[in-house]
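Posted in: Structural Biology > Protein-Ligand Complexes

Title: Requesting predicted complex, heme-as in pocket

I'd be grateful if someone could produce the 3D structure tokens for the following input. Sequence and ligand are given below.
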Amino acid sequence: MNAGVQPTGFNLRDGKLVVAHILTAFVALLLGGVAGLLQSLVRSGSIKLPAAVGYYELLTAHGVLMAIVFTTFFIVGFLYSGISHTLGGKLLPVVLRMGWAGFGLMGAGTALGTVMILSGKASVLYTFYAPLKASPYFYIALALLVIGSWISGWGIFYQYTYWKRTHRGKISPLFAFMAVVTFLMWQIATLGVAAEVLIQLIPWSFGWVETINVMLSRTLFWYFGHPLVYFWLMPAYMCWYVIIPKIIGGKIYSDALARLSFILLLLFSIPVGFHHQLMEPGISPFWKYLQVVLTFMVVIPSLMTAFSLFATFELNGRARGGKGLFGWLRKLPWGDVRFFAPFMGMLIFIPAGAGGIVNASNQMNAVVHNTLWVTGHFHLTVATSVALTFFGITYWLLPLVTGRVLTPRMNKLGIVQTIIWCIGMFFMSGAMHLVGLFGAPRRTAYTTYEDNPEALSWLPYEVAMAIGGTILFIGVLLIVYNVFALLKAPKGESEYPLGEAMEQAEATPAYLERWGIWIGLSVALIVIAYTLPLADMIMHGGPGSPTYVTW
Ligand code: HAS
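-- Reply #1 --
Done. Output follows.
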């Protein structure tokens, strides 16, 4: 055995990089969870914050720490683990250095951003819409985070290209392929936010220019903002496609279908940002219509994923003797948290995705836009389907990369944690969806609008949100406890649960790895969907908006 390599075959040196990312992610989850608890109690009128702490400050901290920091660190850690394991058994020295450099820059960005938010200089929420203006250092912090993630992504490309060069004519492992697509998509998508931050927000926040073109900045944000949600989802899909079949003792339904669904996500997840701007003036209905059509195209890979997962579960259950229409369901390993947590994520993704289709439909968007319904939608998608999947991954990943084993007690705690999360989310997201339909706005602190009867009728739902939020906070505490317990678990051998495709599956076509075609098509779709509207916004940008600092 090589020095530095554990009996599991996972390289200890690489393991440290993975652990650093995963731990940072969970520290962010804890801090973001505290902010979340407080804001749900404030919003229901249950508590008042001390004068020194602003509601929007907490809301910004919650959004940034949960949606951007927790997810990005977790994703980089998880993907590096899989790259190390599937592309040669260890990271190339240069890739390891890139991983640490990315980690350092993302860490610096996170620290600076958190200080700016908590010192009250950046209460601009996680979407940082202009003309609300934060300290320039908040935008610099965001730039550091993005550049750090680029360097980490380039490390993944480097390891992949090296593997392809040394394995001529071979199809890459599915995990590695998916990691490359995820970071390709991220690379293309973050160009929008990089342009917004570097060209617009930083010069404006330093006072070098006085006004800002709000329409342009929001459009550049959503050019990035929608693929951002797929950047969260794709690693969860990687677990569902590649890891879950192994954990349930089955096989991947089709390697080719899994790759095709990722290619479709690359093509269609970017040119759809206008579905977040359907209610905004200044974009012609034609371009909104076009991007809504593309939005419905991006639903297809998720439907393919659902089909593939059902097939995996049913075929595996039947092979184990499951009889009748649903007898195969009983054969699934319900007592294994590595399966149970992601499975609950999948199950909840069915209503969560349906909610997305509601949002994308122009007329229905007019009902739900800017209401708590949307907040309910993203707590089901990212905060449940994605988060529960990431929790499920943590239960095998941390023991694996530290040379330990998951004990039955931790497994049981994990099951309890998953159930607590689902109950909390049922109350919180359920109430958000309902009260959103009654018109309750998102992004507001507690107010009864001078005892307006309509606003008073929202209160019981806001209390339900607070109850859900409190239960979820217990869930946050428990997962963070579990993470630290996993780091002290007994030493032993764990495996990287990587599924294999079914023998009967068709061979994977090599053209799925012709990156030139897919990048070219992706760019072409973006050019078609964005060039004219962006040109229009730049040429007819008007005098620009003055600055607002409302807190
Ligand atoms: Fe969304 C707003 C449309 C998916 C996140 N979304 C948001 C925001 C966030 C977000 C954060 O069109 C708020 C942004 C803000 O701050 O303003 N969303 C969609 C559509 C989809 C979608 C069409 N969203 C997501 C995902 C997210 C996410 C995924 C995070 C991870 N969303 C919108 C729109 C808005 C929006 C508008 C703007 C609203 C507004 O007006 O502001 C689709 O991708 C959804 C497709 C999904 C499916 C479900 C497939 C189901 C699967 C599970 C299978 C289950 C199994 C279990 C196998 C069609 C894959 C087996 C079960 C057994 C019983 C065996």
